[in-house]
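By convention, each integer encodes one residue's backbone shape. The lines below illustrate.
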Amino acid sequence: MFRLSSHWFDAAIKLTLFVVVASFAAGCGSSSANNAAATNSSNTAAEDAPIPITTARAESRAVPAFVQATGSLVADEVSNIAPKVAGKISNISVNIGDFVSQGAVIAKIDDRDARLELAARQAAVKQSQVAVRQAEARLGLGPKGSFNASSIPEVRAANSAYELARAELRQAETNEKRYRELVESGDVAMITYEQYRLVRDTAQARVNTAKEQLDAQINAARQNNEQIRSAEAAVEAARTAVQIAEQGVADTVIRAPFAGFISAREVAVGEFVSTATVIATLLRTNPIKIQMQVAEADVPSIGLGRGVSLEVEAYPGRRFSGVVTAINPAVDATSRSAIVEASIENGDNALRSGMFATARVTKEGGSTGIFIPKSAVYNHAPTQSYRAFVIENGVAKLKVIQLGTEEGDSYQILSGIEAEQMVATSNLDQLYEGAKVAQ
């Protein structure tokens, strides 16, 4: 039998192991190549996927011309509140910094003396009313009675006596006439006629006396009626005095003339104050005013009612608006500027008197500009430039832009973007030049 040597056996084993290892290595290499190809294919697909965005259109708007000015804020109204009556302070209802409504109680003055005066005036009214009733009783009238002489007993009695005397006179005149005619015809003696003439003369005398008595009674009644009128006038005067006393009581309560903030409180409870004493200082800050210094060259271009916007350091980025309300006709000889006042809305009372403000006042003229939303603009930190992406045919194009004025939620674009172009307003951090987008 043929027998292989040990050398040949070892060589055969080594050859077999080499073939196995080579086959395994070839298989691993083929698998790695396949994995790399799959990874490259996945990355290419991810790069080709469009980036979802929102867009807005660049708008062309009117850009108003304006004058830049600085100034200080002042209260629209300042009131140094003083009492209407003198007295001792019994209560104070406010402190510095408090906001008070119109008519709110600021302080009170001790009103005991004022109330005593009111009680005395009310008693005087009652006394005057009693005097009226007494005068009416003397005249024979009831309350609210009208003057009528014939309704007074004394006048009625005198009038009756007068009418009776007149009737007797008429009878005596008739008899005197008849007997005078009989004397003339010779039918009666003269002595008989003389008797009837005497009766007539006596009756005439009684009529005259009765008339005088009637006139006297009527005059007395008229005087009593005048007393009633005088008493009624006294009642009205007393009532007026009551109203004055009531006002005196009301004046012991010191109220706010308008809504605003208390900026100073000058007195304390227990102090005696006069009508010249300042109790508190009240500021009306809504609206609030700004007093700006405007160069004389710009004054002619500013008119009443022009729009004003201002900013203060206390609220960076916030703008307050108002209108021009006054223009000083004089120009300061030193600064060559005029003071312009504007009324500024201050509903939340954020603005305070004394703040320094930078303002812009619109004037005639202006131009047009391109505006895009603030969300379409980002600051590229490495180059310190502002950029935006214009979307054309589903592709983002990077634009370096120059910003102008800020209006609300928009920026004016001085260069880099044209009107009506579409700009991206979201996912700006994912965009790049040539990126595909989906809206």
